[in-house]
Amino acid sequence: MLPIKLKYSKYHKVIFILSVFVLLFIGSITFNHLKKTNQSSQLVMHTYEVGMKLEELLSHVKDSEINIRSFSILKDSTYLLLFNSSELQIDTLFSKIKILTSDSKIQQDNLQDIIEIVKKRNDNIANYLTSTSLEVGFNDDYFRYRFNENNNLLVKIRKNINLMINVEKDNLQFRNENYSDYKYLTPILTLGILLVSLLLLILTYIKINMDIETLRKSNTKLSKAQFLSKQAEILSKFGTWDWNLVNNEVSYSDNLYRILGFERQNFEPGKTFNDYVHPEDRAKLEQKTESIRNGQEINNFYFRIIDAHGQTKHLRASGKIFENQLTGRTILGLTADVTAEHVQILKINERNMELEQHVKELDEFNHLVSHDLQEPLRKIETFISLLDNKELNNLSDFGKGYVIKISKASSRMRKLINDMLEYSRTSRADKNYEKIDLTSSLYDSLMELSHTIEVKKAIINQVSLPTIDAIEFQMQQLFTNLISNSLKYTKENVAPVIDITYRKVIALEESLLKLSTADKYHKITIADGGIGFEQEYSEEIFKLFNRLHGKTEYEGTGVGLAICKKIVENHRGYIFAKSSPNLGSEFIIYIPYEYSEDIYQ
After folding, report:
1. How far apart are CA 249 and CA 272, in angstroms?
2. Phi, psi of 481 (to 5 degrees)
3. How far apart are CA 135 and CA 209, in angstroms?
4. Whose C-alpha in 18, 200, 341, 563 is 20 to 30 A from the C-alpha of 582?
5. Measuring CA to CA, which residue among 396, 410, 486 is closest to residue 449?
6. DSSP letter assigned to residue 430
7. By the 8 A CB rule, do 513 and 590 touch?
8. Given its phi and psi angles, is residue 546 left (phi above 0), alpha (psi -120 to 50 degrees) or beta?
9. Which domain holds residue 561?
10. Is residue 9 part of a domain?
11. 191 and 317 belong to one structural domain
């Protein structure tokens, strides 16, 4: 389950980072938009303020003009004071407007023009205020000249102020439009970030639900796995343990306590696992434990324990160092109760000893057959030969018949004893495998059967055979027995034709090799056109002493094909027979093509 957990963890991190990035991105856009909206609002207010100050400036200029004219006409000093007050207000407004329009060079230039005009106007007013023309009246030419000049300057002041007011109106219109645009986008962006946040929340909720469902399924599988693991420990009689080398804490599985004779996860007070180890095995166990601590992996270490009920049990243990960043170095181990196996091994050893005794008795029997039984048989054959040479004419026809039967029976017994010895030799021969040329072995077999081949005028069609690891005399015997069998069961007055073929095959492509132990095989086929047999007997013919024909029809003991099967099995191969009555027989041999050096051990 760990790889799935890591996969989900990385996925969540990616989703979280992307979500935070999206929110920060949208938030930054919204923040910038709100900042620009606020700036636009401030610019609008600033423009309103500049306009208001310009309107106020124009008003004070008008008031100052009215006051100075009233003073000129009425000669009332009150108006002169009001004029001076207006002039102070105008100077103050000039300072404020200059600061407010510091971001606009055009307005600064216009303002400077107005200031220059106002200075000229003030100089003009000061000139005619101090002149004697005020005393002589309005008909004085100098007074009229100054008065007209002052009117012209006032018109310019008004014109320039109106020009500045118009510039601010244009700015106000432009900034109002910008503010309206920002104001229009503000709810859209706010709604957008709300929707995106809501979407991320929904996706997160869905993903969390999916993860919870996956986690639930994983926990269900884990619970099943833990249950099956515990049941497997019980059925297989093994337990697991975990030894943390950092804090020296050891934990055991439930079944390991059961192996020690406890039903619960608890030792007797003051005891540890080592206290239950057999005294003779404690030193070996400590040595193996130290080897594991040094990083060596220990497999199949055997020791004994005396459980809580006083029973001696044989255990098999293995352990390995496990490195973990969270818990540090830990030894993970498995301990199995192999008491039943130990008892079974003792029984097997006992039976092996019995088997060795039987083999020894079989050797004695073979010696008996090869020596003690053949000795009286040779005497019987000698006496029959003497009787046939010297006394046969003195016997009646009935006696002569018995002599012939006894001679045939002794010959058959001689062949049967030889075949038995040959089968025993094949079954128990030392398996000394070496590289041999099967073509050469086949040639030796044909030379051995050359007389029979010549008498029967047999035709042998053969191909080149491979070189394999085999027992030489057994492969020659295999070819001899099979070819001899084909020469024996031939049709009357028909020269036998024997075809020997070979090819390398793949086990999966051969229908006969259903339970093969190798991938590739040498396939050797020996086919004849003899009398054949029913296919239902294709397995019976390889059994010892099994014959399909009577003793009088064809000679033989029923051992030859059994020897062939034993030879092929000695080479980890297979032999099969296919046949039909009067259509001949086909013997198919499979010998492994590739195998390890210890395949025959």
Report:
1. 12
2. -65, -40
3. 101
4. 563
5. 486
6. -
7. yes
8. beta
9. 430-592
10. yes
11. no
Look at residue 499 and give its three-state secondary structure: strand
Q: Give alpha helix (H) positions in 387-489.
A: 397-428, 438-448, 450-456, 472-488
CB atoms within 10 A of CB 95: 9
Q: If 0-12 CB within 10 Å is exposed, 13-18 middle and 19+ buried, where does residue 133 land?
A: buried
Same domain, 261 and 378: no
Q: Which amino acid is located at 220 in the chain?
A: T
Q: In which order are the strands placed within the sheet that holds 328-337? A: 249-252, 238-244, 328-337, 312-324, 298-306
Q: Is residue 217 part of a domain?
A: no
Q: Which domain CATH number covers 246?
A: 3.30.450.20
Gap between the Cα atoms of 544 and 164, Å rounded: 131
pLDDT of 416? 63
Q: Which residues of the chain have pLDDT under 50?
A: 1-8, 132-134, 136, 138, 550, 595-601
Domain check: are 332 and 444 in the same one? Answer: no
Q: Are 329 and 373 in a shared domain? A: no
The encoded tokens of residue 170 equal: 């244009």
What's the pLDDT score for residue 39?
Answer: 67
Cβ atoms of residues 221 and 2 within 8 Å = no
Helices (H), 101-140: 105-130, 133-136
Q: What is the reported pLDDT for 425?
A: 62
Which residue in 299, 308, 298 sits closest to 256, CA to CA?
308
Number of domains in the chain: 4
